[in-house]
Amino acid sequence: MDCPVSAGSRGLQAFLTGIDDEKRQAHRELLFSVDEAAVKKAAEQLKHQLEQSVALGRAVLGPKETSKWTKTNDWSLFDLLQQ
């Protein structure tokens, strides 16, 4: 996070992502403001959620119209734009 970055790279990153120096600095300050108790609390919440949940994963494989995938009964197709 705090490694040296050239001005050109910083400008390109801002152009591509829309994240300027002010937003990056605000994010950096938020990260550094987290204490040990907050990390432990988040870990416990995540652990609890994972224990209560059914394993679920998603993968984007390609266009929905691809006949290779639509003819296979083992695959479930979801339009992620609709969810």
List the helices and strands and how they pair.
Layout: H1 7-17, H2 21-33, H3 36-52, H4 67-70
List keywords for this structure.
flat; 83 residues; mainly alpha
Q: SSE order in H/E notation?
A: HHHH
Helix content: 40-55%
What is the count of β-strands? 0
Quaternary assembly: single chain
Distance between the termini: 33 Å
* Alpha-beta classification: mainly alpha
Low-confidence stretches: none
What sort of overall outline do the alpha carbons produce when their principal axes are compared? flat
Strand content: under 5%
- Computed Rg: 21 Å
Mean of all residue-level pLDDT scores: 78
Largest sheet entry? none
Task: Please give the count of helices.
Answer: 4
The structural domain count equals 1
Describe it for me?
This protein has 83 residues and is mainly α. The protein has one domain. The longest helix has 17 residues. The model has no long low-confidence stretch (mean pLDDT 78).
